Amino acid sequence: MSNPTSLGLFEQANLLEKKEISSSELTELYLKNIKENEDLNCFISLNEYALDEARKIDKLKNRKSSVQGIPIAHKDIFCAKGYKTTCGSKMLENFTSPYSSTVFDKLNTSKTIMLGKTNMDEFAMGSSNETSYFGKVKNPIDKLRSPGGSSGGSAAAVKANLCAFATGTDTGGSIRQPASFCGVTGIKPTYGRVSRWGMIAFASSLDQAGIFAKSALDASIALEVISGFDEKDSTSIQKKVPNFRDETSSKMNHIIGIPYKLIDKIDDSNIKQNFLDAINTLEKNGIKTKEIDLPYIEYSLPSYYVIAPAECSANLSRYDGIKFGYRCSDPKDLEDLYTRTRSEGFGEEVKKRILIGTYCLSAGYFDAYYIKAQKIRALITKSFKQAFKEVTVIAMPTCSNEAFKLGSIQDPVKMYEQDIYTIPANLAGLPAISVPSGSNNKMPLGLQFIGNHLDESKILNISHEFQKLTDHHVC
Amino acid sequence: MSAETNNQIWEPVIGLEIHVQLSTESKIFSNAPTEFGIEQNLQASIIDLGLPGVLPVLNKKAIEMAVKFGCSINAKISNNAIFARKNYFYPDLPKGYQISQLDDPIVGEGSVEIEVESEKKLIGITRAHLEEDAGKSIHDKYDNLSAIDLNRAGTPLLEIVSEPDLRSAKEAVSYLKKIHSIVTFLDISDGNMSQGSMRCDANVSIRKKGETEFGNRTEIKNINSFKFVEKAINFEISRQIKLIESNKFIKQETRLYDSQKNETRSMRSKEHANDYRYFPEPDLIPLKISNEYIKNIKNSLPELPDKKIERFCSEYNLNNYEAEILNSSKEMSNFYEKIAQSVKNTKLIAKWMVGDFSAILNKYGSSVEESKISCDDLTDLLKKLDEDKISDPAAKKIIEILWNENITVEEIIERENLKQISNEDDIGELIERVIRENPKQLEQYRNGKEKLFGFFVGQVMKTTQGSADPKVVNKILKDKLKQ
Description:
Chain A contains 17 helices and eleven strands. By secondary structure, chain A is an alpha/beta fold. Helices cover 39% and strands 20% of the residues of chain B. Chain B has 16 helices and 15 strands. The longest helix of chain B is centred in the middle third of the chain and has 20 residues, at 226-245. The chains are: A alpha/beta, B alpha+beta.
């Protein structure tokens, strides 16, 4: 048997089922991997009780869930009762959550084992994992390169076999871009499919939890566990969760929509070719494609960088040094307490976005920025709706480049452009997935599928088809 | 006061913003209880504390209450109400923003009728919206430190904004009382102003009579009694008139009313006012309210004060003044109707409830709910009065004792010997004795000094310690004096 930690969730579950391996053995192997790969800096904190939990689970007679006994990692944005939840920030360096997020709860009651909490860009703001207060994460494939962000720790941990699968969050591409950079599968479901309760907010109308795994099939199993209506989240959707695993491997007739106008504009010919090759592979195997038009999509980035900072400026107001989190020493007065706590507690990128958001919402600018951005958002949503009348899924690259060298992007706008292909799905609230599609300069690239509202099954299904035809995901 | 002396020239323009705490069992966005007076911070849940990752869930009961209010003022109810974040930093505002409403409030334009000095007037209500209350900052508990109590954080508030239709402090008070009676009759708030369940901000400006433009206005914050509303507004009107008459400018600002000194003081200038950076609350979806839901609430509304006042006038033969006072609160109105079931003379009940009963409540600073005199006691008392078993002065005496002692009306009459003597033979005998004892006065009376009649009545009442029925005394005395 090859090292079980290199296997995916689906195969591990089979081994556990057949008692060919125990959860504690699996956990021990992962803990060893984690120790050996400390330099990747994937984890902010480790769960010292992981092995004890695994031993308890090994004593259970029956397997009650598809993920029972599977060692996993949580992005450190999910509150877990009794555990530190830092969100990658000095502001919450010593915050121990008194309650659990729904995502943590669901995976916990399904008897997964949390190995630890993964590193991330501070408050999920960043595309390189360089804004984390706890230091940058290194890409396991090339340690000089970025794993992407903001869920870089989770993506790198899955790639480096430090956990079977990991949770992440995606506000503008924070699951898909790191998945692409690290060569793993990452899915962001429909906005509202997974409860946001206990998931520390960046931009509430865009944030959505999702999964990193080794394959679409593995992701489908984990996604099913965390999905579902939650009365604690008013924006969660009251729809029954399909059997994602069965639907992922079922027979579907796809018509893939391709926005060729957008593809033509890709500067890097290798990236463009990689995408066209992937589409070619699918077409050769009898899957239909169709050109679609996505008007207004080029305005996604500017409208996102108004809406997300606007919401974040309010969401991060609670970190004021009064009730929890960091507080500056010896404040002179209230004003000083606020100013120094927030100046010292937040990193530069977070402060930058709070300032942008505050500005966009200010009297006199609100209509020109926020309202206009919302109008564009509505138009983009409409253009997707129109496109999905003719196609089952839409394909485009996940990112316009492979993983870049850590520290190489200094211009913030260049960094924001990392999310150019991922942001539209967030603005429209649509499910989207990134699957490995080959490489450029020996670094992985990602192919993105976007689905219609609540059509996670379709993008998982087409991804699974692609992974049956290719081996990029097992490289 | 110059407000009074100059009211030929100047016209005050007043609008009120009334904050009403809704009497839901739990908070507007969490399931923490809303009880008043619990130990600090014990009824603040993780949602009220604004911990990282928490989300608000709207309390359905608060929606129902807001819609009830809207239906009661004939307002348009929004089918798609939107919540918004109002951003500002303050230690007792845990999230750094308050969830409130800006565009598309749950209750749109409506109106209520008020009556001041027998003149009826329609006061427009611009809107009423739902929002969460903040916590409390406590500055006097620890030296050099402020404390925060977040028990109140997240208590549902309905903010009712009037049009600038009010033209005097009296009208403002009348309007506030009307809103108070509506919310208490609807049972959507206890309306307790001293506990802060109902608070009011007054926007005040003045202009020359006949002008249509508004003057610069000031906003007086957080006034917490009817009396203070009247005083604060009157003070502010005088202050503004004085300023304008001495050619000074009225600063657009927020002011605070100091009830001890009876004056308003500048709090902050509007020019430096907060920019609240409102935007739609992304954690809550737009609130869909169906027409059917609104119709059902409309059909199940209880009898409201205006209707009840009308009915009291016709059914109990009362004048408008009496009916209005009896309907100033739901408890008062219930008290009255309960007594009216056993005491036939409804005028008499009204006279006593508007007069002595209200007076004693005032004297002890109590509301009807807190009255030390139960409805049954008052019923007993008024029944005995109506049946001439006790006299008016005796009843006045009994009401005071009832308030202060745990004792029945019957026991007081017995103890204080207050039974009214109305037997004609007994009174006749008494009168004969009084006449015999005062031969001089009798002679003067019979010689035409008829004023002395009162003297004889007084003597009779004195010997009976006021317990003789004055009607019987008058009648018999007249006969006996003639003989």
